Amino acid sequence: MARNVIITGGGTGIGRAAARSFAAEGDQVLLLGRRAEVLERAGVPGALTFAADLSTVEGARGAAEFAADALRGAVDVIVHSAGGHGGREPEDDVGDDPLDAVAHRWNTNFRINTLTTVLLTEALRDRLASPGGRVLFISSIAALRGSGTGAYGASKAALHPYAFDLAKALGPRGITVNVVAPGYIEDTEFFGYEMSDEEYARRVSATLTGRAGTLRDMASTLLWLASPGAGHVTAQVIQVNGGEMPGR
């Protein structure tokens, strides 16, 4: 039976790969993100799209209301892939004060990586399929070992206790909540630059599998966690990093 699947950040990278995989399973997919044109170009067969800033109450509420009108029945799966590195967001409002820059960096990361997930989840909480609903957060290896600047990793790490608390609250309804924490994944916009051969080799050599992660790795993991076969898996942080955390 086709499920209703909502994917944030569904126009690019991991979100788009997941959306295409769910659509291939015959599910009805709703793509959410800030850029309407990106969502429309995502190439996900049969997908609905809605553009909104999910880091705001208005945006999250609008997306939830659109889902209620556009989707028939409950929401079966939510994949939270919206977010990114706050250092690439506009800094027009930041002055010369270094503390202002710190505040901007931390606020921005929490807004785009934490609030986007929390607000939409809470807006859709009562509409999750019971039993059988699946809520999936995309975190990062940076949440487990740091990100160099603190802000990005911290904003992703904040999703972990929220997922655990949500799993406790929704478990009696037969709903699971899990976190997927990837390492380096090829072919995404996350890094925002053309990686040098030396940097690529460094990242690959840090894994135990001797290769970079792929969008298929992530999409396959998300599909499994959303499947009936993972119905007893909840409140977990699933690492998709080729063993980069323990290292060589």
Automatic annotation (TrEMBL):
Gene3D superfamilies: NAD(P)-binding Rossmann-like Domain. It comes from the Bacteria. PROSITE patterns: ADH_SHORT. Keywords: NADP, Oxidoreductase. Residues 3-188 form the Ketoreductase domain. It holds the Pfam family adh_short_C2. Belongs to the short-chain dehydrogenases/reductases (SDR) family. This is SDR family oxidoreductase. It comes from Streptomyces beihaiensis. The lineage of its organism: Bacteria, Bacillati, Actinomycetota, Actinomycetes, Kitasatosporales.
